[in-house]
Task: structure prediction
Amino acid sequence: MGTEQQARRGPRARRGLLSALTASLLTLGAALTHLTTASPASADPIAKCTRTKGAIVAVDFGKWGGPVVRGCDTTPTTGYDLLHAGEFTTEGTGHDGPAFICRIGNRAFNSGKKYPTPAQEDCVLTPQATAYWSYWIASPGQKKWTYSPLGAMSRTLKPGDVDAWVFGATDIGGTKGRPSFTPDDVRADGGDPPAPGDPPAPNVPPGTIDLPAATRWLTERLTNGQRVVNDGDTTPNYPATTEVAYALAATDSENATARRIAAFLGRPEHTDAYAYPAGKDEAPDATAAARLALLAEATGKDPRNFGGHDLLGDLMANVCLSGSDAPQPVPGCTTKGDFRTTGQTEGQTLAVIALLNGGITPPADSVTRLAQLQCDDGGFPSFLILDGQVCESEAPTTALVALALQHAGGHTPAVTRARSSLKKAQFETGSWPAASYSVPGSAYATGWVAQTLRALGDRAHADAGLSWLSRQQLPGGGFAFEEGTTDPLLYATTAAVIAGAKSDLVTLTTKEPVPPTTPPTTPPTTPPTTGPTPPPAGDGPDLKKGSAYLADHKRLIQGRYYEGSPRFADYGMTIDGAYALAATGHDNATLRNIVDFLDQGGKDASGRGVHDWTKIGTKYAGGGFIGKTAVLAESVGRDPRNFGGKNLIAALAKSTCSAATPAEPRKCAGKGNYAYATSVFSQSLGIIAQVRAGETAAAAQPVTYLKSLRDPSTGAWPSLIGEPSDIEVDSTAMAAMTLDLLPDADSKAAVDQALKWLAGRQLPDGGFTGASGNSVNSAALAVQGLSLDADTYATEIAKARTFLASQQNKDGGFNVIKGGQPGSDVRASTQAVGGATGISFGVLTRDLSGTTPQPVPSISGQPGTSTPVIITEGENGGASGGQATGTGGGGLAATGSQVAGLAVAAVLLVLLGWGATHAARRRRETAGGQA
Result:
């Protein structure tokens, strides 16, 4: 249910709102006069961002007499990160978190003071639609601004993109309140140097690896078919065990042995022993946590609930915010952007890949840290060196980093140089050396480089490497470390197998969500107490696949909530997802997890629960938020008078306004308005909650107020309350679902008129105009509304469901708008999945009997802070919780020189997988052999 959030321009707002032009906008001439460039020391100079490289953001401080300030990011990821890379500071709201940009500052204007000031806007709740930072975008070549259909955290940037932020208001179509400057006014000119010439691939005969023999050799290295144990040891070699699993998963995504390994390592005692050597509540060993996360992703397990830990959450919580030169350095942090406890490039890279494959955007500083390691020859070193230290590139490391940077996006020049470096380093035999000074070809290095170059499109070079590998396979199926040796080595064999399977670490750990193999019956296996209307007839989206998308652990954190920003739950969107799962009945277990989390005091990683969002019991208690939560409780058979420890129905009655509050215009727009219910969506949810709870009399005044908002000439409703706003599909459908619960003739007539208006708004392709275009959200809500009279509007419903099906992506999710930024969006998908069923929120019901609660794993240590544990109070008979403080723990940090690092890390390197290269190097040096 996205419209309530949209009307408030929430963290991932889909639309512009209001029709009044802000008086504070500058004229074009004034804007150009004041156009300045913010280029502090840590920001990329504007000249570095060209029409084909990087992205630029412009922020207009004209409201406060300031300039238009620009910022540049040469490796852009999201609109949110672009702001900060451009040296802007931002502040979110207490209600929606940092993802909703409430204040912006830059040191180029008034010493970095953030605007609006606290006296102008307290930023507790979402600001008024007449006074907020509106977000505008322009793609390469575009001459006009478009109001962004996505919030800054959701917008993925391309080279040449331009963003703008203007304080004021806009309307639903984004036709008013545009920036007073054009995209070309803030773009930078320039071009990129031509790519260096690369050598052709070696001319060698084709060859293939005997994968059955190689995988058989690997499985024979396992003890009890589940772990590697070195000769003379009794404890598992955990890194080697994960390597075997990667190789087996590369050859067969359903490999039983790989899954058996994952089950073994997923036992808490082994996860703790490997990834949490300093204690299960301390910061993890980042390399080990990343390896386990990749293992989980490769074998269909949840990296956010593996061995009792949220591995991805722990990685994000332990990114260094400063380095060893800080006044109070954090143990394990060499410089900003490092993952704590990893002094090696491998660990940093694996963590980035694990986060990306888990659906999480890694911190920009962490990715930039990798890119900045690049040596003059285009390769990458095995250590996380600092400026001024010797940079000695190695082929396996270069391959892994190039794979990660390509996956992260925005680092094309670095990836191009790395590819060129790798192709130039290839021997005529098709092999690669383990290090730049080595002469023999290395199966270990060749396996890594071949898989990466294939992933990057250099198939001829990859095939030449595969040809060489095919000639190096030993009789038993394994591979030696390098040419001329005959002792098979596990790490060399795993790298060769992945290359031979024509896979790579990204491919083998990135899977589409797999819908349940046994779909629910119709009615579902756990039938609702009141049977919902079956999905309308005709073609429509795949609701089973859509439900799997919503329930996937990459999006639903630990199966409990969606995030609006890292560590900050978006409770509104979480409830939207629960509505969708309740409507389809395809995953009642996940629905139960969400409901229990909300009902039993669950907290997100920032320590906030659902009632920190509803604000119940405070002066900011929002009727719409309370109503939304109550409707979920009613839909799944929970008591709305005791949900999350609060009486939601009593709170709704208390929040009903007795009159308008001119001194606090956002609080009460009129008698019967719920407090801080600033949209028709919010008002409708409060009424639905009260009526479903049997409080029809208490809802009478709110109903009267809702009806007063209706446009008498069309029968449609506007989006906003208390502010000018156009009539629209989303709010009209929601109001119709609300009034359909009431028996009086006036309500029935209002519903009939609303449905007639909705049907008349349908576009030829079956869609409906909504947020910045032909909207998935609007089409889904229209289906729900029109399904109130399904017989009359069967044709329109069928067309709308066909439209929704056309906007469903391969992963099961849905686009935001037709023709917009491609890719699935969680908020749009929640509405599409639930809306396509045609079930009104007024009658949505799902019986959760037969499901069981599941414990929630914790998130460990954040640099320099205490991090609340994610808990669900009351599960397993009581409350659990506490705090986990990141106080350090082993791992290798840079020591000032690579030689010293080698001496300190000799044993660790072998355990971490890259040690084979350096062990071989040391053997040669000690023996006086070839270097």
